[in-house]
Amino acid sequence: MIVMKFGGTSVESAAAIGRVAEIVRARLDRHPVVVVSAMGKTTNKLLAIGSAAVSGRREEALESLTAMRAFHLAEAAGLGVNAEVEAHFHELAELVKGLAVMGELTPRATDAISSYGERISSVIVAAYFRHAGIPAVHVDSRSVIVTDGRHMQAVPLFPESNAKLEAVIPPLARKQVVVMGGFIGATEEGVTTTLGRGGSDYTASIVGAGIGAEEIQIWTDVDGMLTADPTILPGGYRVETCSFAEAAELAYFGAKVLHPATVLPAIEKNIPVRILNSRRPEVEGTLIVAEAPPSRSPIRSIACKKNITLVNIVSTRMLMAHGFLRRIFEIFDRFETPVDMLATSEVSVSLTVDNTRALGAIRDEIQEFAEVSIEDHHAIVCLVGENIRKIPGTVARVFTALKDINVRMVSQGASLLNISLVVAASDLHRAVESLHREFFDA
Asked: What are 63-99's pLDDT values in tens digits?
């Protein structure tokens, strides 16, 4: 069995779902389990509808919902699922009216409304498969993926989920294609939860680990992982193979082709993950395995994280004093603000964050014992590769390539396979271009 996950752009329309059906048909002998995202930007629209409803704009919310319903019914026309789609939208309309009365979009309500994108798309995709002559059955992910009750970022309960997945999915998949919605689960009490944005990749990995799949395929709209972020530097090369460790590092530092948590269940079960392009299925994509063959370059790929804020903390009073770092990070922890990079000296700390929601309050508390300056409009450039630790002179090549760019912060050593740099946002393109030329075009 294989697990095939298709993202929103791969199922955004009837024509796109038609392409998916042919991709799946070509792999029927591998007993595919298909996990789908919501169609196009449906989840964003659902959240906008919920926000409008609780903000007193009830009619606006219902009008948007009517337009969404018309779109989904048009794409489902002729597949024999209109009644099922109608039922979902009837539930949605009642939920939106309830939100308008309640006047608050709680985390539980957010999960409830945002779950409908995948619930509806998976029903439509399963129906299209049957319409196209592919035996298919729909399984509601909430019946097999059990999570805790942390809404909007639920954590799977793996023993319970694995038991349900193993009992339900393989018997069905031996005879027909199983179609499931990504991103969603339910508590042991049956309350709908979501795994966080981008969680459909995570769903595919959870399902793959739970059923012992031979491979997990993530079908998207690019040819696989590239040697540079295509939104920063078009024209990068496809990475044929990389390790789980490299993929996780790249995902965390901005490689949007893969959700950062995706590889974790796959790592535990040593299941290969392959990134593929649903618009170019003939391309072999990128294979992610436990141990990848060494690359010619010390760098496997360059990832970027935009909208980074640099926080500088200085206190001469803390010279030689223990507990300085503990005091700082207790504050960040209390405000649930993660830190990406860190550099320290005897009396100063520089760090980066990409979530500035609580930064004002954090600064106020730290200023009780240190001086704080905050600098916006920065970016992290992260060079990832397991050969970094093996090939001498790599860091020298990095700084030679960036000799005309002001590097604000450097981190190496915390991870054996990445070199991370902070540059001004205005220098990001030039920095990536210079580094790519040094390591991939030489």
From this structure: 999 999 999 999 998 887 888 899 999 999 999 999 9
According to DSSP, residue 293 is labeled P
The reported pLDDT for the residue numbered 266 is: 85
| Contact residues for 163 (Cβ-Cβ < 8 A; gap 6+) | none
Specify the pTM. Answer: 0.86
Contact 273, 229 (CB under 8 A): no
Structure tokens at 220: 């998207």
The β-bridge relationship of strands 177-181 and 136-138 is parallel
Torsion of CA 304, 310, 311, 312, to 10 degrees: 120
Who contacts 177 (Cβ-Cβ below 8 Å, separation ≥6)? 24, 28, 32, 33, 34, 126, 129, 134, 135, 136, 137
3-state secondary structure of 267: helix
Task: Give yes or no for a contact between 234 and 25, defined as CB atoms under 8 angstroms apart.
Answer: no
Tell me if 353 sits within 8 A of 309, measured CB to CB: yes
What single string gives the DSSP state of each residue in 371-384?
A: EEEEEEEEEEEEEE
Tokens of 372: 């704080």
Q: Which pair of structure tokens corresponds to residue 343?
A: 């550099």
By the 8 A CB rule, do 37 and 98 touch? Answer: no
Q: Work out the pLDDT band at 137, boundaries 50, 70, 90.
A: very high
In angstroms, the CA 232 to CA 430 distance is: 9
Residue 270 main-chain phi, psi, to 5 deg: 55, 45
d(C-alpha 6, C-alpha 321), whole Å:
53
Q: Which of 60-93 are b and which e, b meaning 16 or more Cβ less than 10 Å from the residue's Cβ? A: ebbebbeebbeebeebbeebebeebbeebbeebe
Distance CA 6, CA 29 (A): 19
Of all helices (H) and strands (E), which one includes residue 192?
Answer: strand 192-194
